[in-house]
Amino acid sequence: MTDDPFTHVDSSGDVQMVDVAGKPDVQRRATAEGHITLRTATVTAIEEAAIAKGAVLSTARIAAIGAVKQTWSSIPLCHQIPITDVDVEILPSDDGIGMAVTVGTTGPTGCEMEALQGVLTGLATIWDMVKANEKDAAGQYPATRISNVRVTDKQKRPLD
Q1: Tell me, which fold does domain 26-158 have in CATH?
Q2: What is the pLDDT of residues 117-139, one digit of tens each?
Q3: What is the pTM of this model?
Q4: In angstroms, rounded to a whole number, what is the distance separating the alpha carbons of residues 87 and 29?
Q5: Which residues are marked as active site?
């Protein structure tokens, strides 16, 4: 119920995808970060390639990149954007794994959702691959959690 062209609601209150056709193309980058808390023994098993499901960090990296490329299909009002690059940084620590995903694009709309989707999927992939190591005797995950997911940087600059 606004005439603002940059809302997800039209004048009759119906949800719509924002029309970005009139916006100029600019170079954009966004970085999102997050952390999965794991038992120290699980982190050690990851580092020693002793997880039964395979190469945890390589698989998480591939999952994060794939999620970035498919964000438009899982978040209903996101535009399908041309991804120019994706960088996935994985940071093991004693209490888990940190992940930062940086996405680049050139176009009329940003790539924050893509960076967030990459982090969330990458961290969920780690959880999936190590869940047998993380379960307690009752089959629960008392220590495992994904947290601190946030956009940490957003940039845009005009094309040269």
Answers
A1: Alpha-Beta Plaits (3.30.70)
A2: 999 999 999 999 999 999 999 99
A3: 0.91
A4: 11
A5: 128
